[in-house]
Amino acid sequence: MIRTLSLEQEQIARKVLEIQKLAYRVEAELIGYDDLPPLRDNLQSLQQCGETFYGYFVDEQLAGVISCKRTEQLLDIQRLVVHPAHFRKGIARSLLEHLLLTNRSAAKAIVSTGARNHPARSLYEQHGFSLTAERVVAPGLSLVFYEKQLAQN
C-alpha cells in the first residue's frame, strides 16, 4: 500500500532517513562513489527539504519511499529509495508508477541518478524516460538526467 507521508512526524522522518541511508549506501557501492549527498542528510535537512513524500508499506512497515517537488508544469523526482531487504520486489516500480499517475497533469517529469546506477536507469527507461544529459558533478561521480513528457497540452 502506498500512502502520503508527513515528515513532520519525527518517527516517520527517522524511518525515511534510515531507509534512505541504507539504500544510498548500496548505490554508493554500486557506482563506486561513497560521498553521495543523500548520505549526508540528517533529520532536520530531510524534514526541511520541501518535498512531497510517498511511502510503500509492507505489513505496515515502511519499505520504500519516493519524493518530488512539483510545480504546475514540472514533476521533479528527488529521491526513490527501497530498503535493501525489499529489493527486487517491484516496490520502486510501484512507487514511480504511483507518482506519475497522481501527477499526470504536469507537463513533464524529470529525474537524475548516478550514471553507473544501471538498475535505476533501467527503471526510468522502462517507464518512458529519455536520457537528456550526462554530467560529471565531482571527481568520480557522473549523473545522468532523464525526462518524460506527461500531460498532452
Automatic annotation (TrEMBL):
Keyword match Glycoprotein: no
Gene3D superfamilies given for it? 3.40.630.30
Q: List, alphabetically, the GO terms of the cellular component aspect.
A: ribosome
Q: Where is the N-acetyltransferase domain?
A: 1-151
Protein name (Swiss-Prot/TrEMBL): Ribosomal protein S18 acetylase RimI-like enzyme
- InterPro entries linked to this entry: Acyl_CoA_acyltransferase, GNAT_dom
The coiled-coil regions, if any, are none
Ordered alphabetically, the record's keywords are: Ribonucleoprotein, Ribosomal protein
List the Gene Ontology MF annotations in alphabetical order.
Answer: acyltransferase activity, transferring groups other than amino-acyl groups
Please provide an example of a Pfam family that matches this protein in its UniProt record. Acetyltransf_10
